[in-house]
Specification:
It is a single chain. The protein is mainly α. The protein has one domain. It has 8 helices and no strands. It holds the Pfam family DUF2062.
């Protein structure tokens, strides 16, 4: 194996790696940030793509977030890779909060108090997999309730990322131009000084 460890990790190290990653929790976020910033597209395209992914993550349609984010990115003229990266907003840590928030917002938007109504037995609903029984008590409020937070977070992510990506790309262009001028100067003066 190409990148195998010389000394295999013991069971204690594997167990501690489950609780606290060896490289820390910040490393994946740094990688994610750099992956977005290094996309070769316009600031609008990158920001719109990530915003589309974030907006799609608010919907209760797990398994279709990529497709939905691609559709939203297409409408917004966003980058498809950035849209796929933006769907990372919805993950096992954030889904319980997203689902709770969208369900409660949807119930209020439909004019029902969030805790009013009959008791919903989700296990029974999902065992029978009858969409008509699941739609009214669960999915309809979640779909309707996803609209306001999706629009708010999508707009916020777009605005922040647009300026971050624009600044990063401007700094990178200046750095590459300086490096190019230094190489050109070295190429011109190099042979003459020998």
């Amino acid at each position: 194996m190409l990148f195998r460890r010389r000394k295999p990790a013991g069971w204690k190290e594997k167990l501690s790696g489950l609780v606290w990653p060896r490289k820390g929790f910040i490393r994946p976020f740094q990688y994610f940030r750099m992956r977005i910033l290094r996309l070769t597209a316009s600031p609008h395209s990158i920001a719109a793509g990530v915003a589309a992914g974030v907006m799609a993550s608010w919907t209760p349609f797990m398994g279709f977030h990529f497709i939905l984010s691609f559709a939203i990115a297409f409408v917004l003229a966003g980058n498809m890779v950035a849209a796929a990266l933006g769907t990372a907003f919805g993950n096992p840590l954030t889904f319980p909060f997203i689902w709770t928030a969208t369900w409660q917002i949807g119930k209020r938007m439909l004019g029902e108090p969030p805790h009013a109504g009959r008791h919903i037995n989700l296990r029974q609903l999902f065992e029978h997999a009858d969409l008509s029984q699941i739609w009214n008590p669960v999915l309809k409020p979640m779909v309707i309730g996803a609209i306001p937070p999706a629009l708010i977070t999508g707009a916020t992510v777009y605005i922040v990322l647009y300026f971050v990506v624009r600044g990063y790309q401007a700094r990178r262009r200046v750095k590459l131009a300086a490096r190019s001028r230094a190489r050109l100067k070295a190429a011109i003066t190099g042979p003459a000084s020998v």
